[in-house]
Acyl-CoA thioesterase
Amino acid sequence: MSDVARPFTVALPTDQELVLKVIPMPADCNASGDIFGGWVMAQVDLAGAVLPARRVKGRIATVAVNEFIFKQAVKVGDILSFFARIVKVGRTSVTVQVEVFAERFALQGQYIKVTEARLTYVAIDKQGKPCPVPEA
Ligand SMILES: CC(C)(COP(=O)(O)OP(=O)(O)OC[C@H]1O[C@@H](n2cnc3c(N)ncnc32)[C@H](O)[C@@H]1OP(=O)(O)O)[C@@H](O)C(=O)NCCC(=O)NCCS
């Protein structure tokens, strides 16, 4: 069985928001033809910032990648869907859980979870110092 037909497809989450869709290109590959982990991390950082930025309504900075798991390889041409939800709002920080699902090019409509991560963003002022997250 080829790697595009392995039976671990899942349903997309219904309790999280779709914050980004993107298709990796050949320039994002390593020498083995798989997508660089660093490229995936950059996309997750962008996707993870969407809900904290909306909540803070101002400038934010990534302070921590609390957890990052690469569950399956990402391939050129995969349609990646990034889902996020806020898991914690602190005094100056917002923590989000991000899950990434791939539709293989040849198997669209079937989703494989490829990555999950938890990241923390901090609300910052004009001087780049932490400031309180506004009330919801
Ligand atoms: C983000 C930054 C402004 C925070 O400043 P700081 O003085 O370290 O902040 P604090 O120690 O007061 O922590 C601020 C918040 O971050 C949280 N935090 C800090 N380190 C954390 C970690 N490792 N994991 C989770 N949360 C963390 C704190 O708990 C606090 O949240 P709270 O107020 O909701 O309780 C500063 O560290 C910074 O500028 N970092 C660089 C950011 C950046 O450039 N990011 C892009 C990566 S290249």
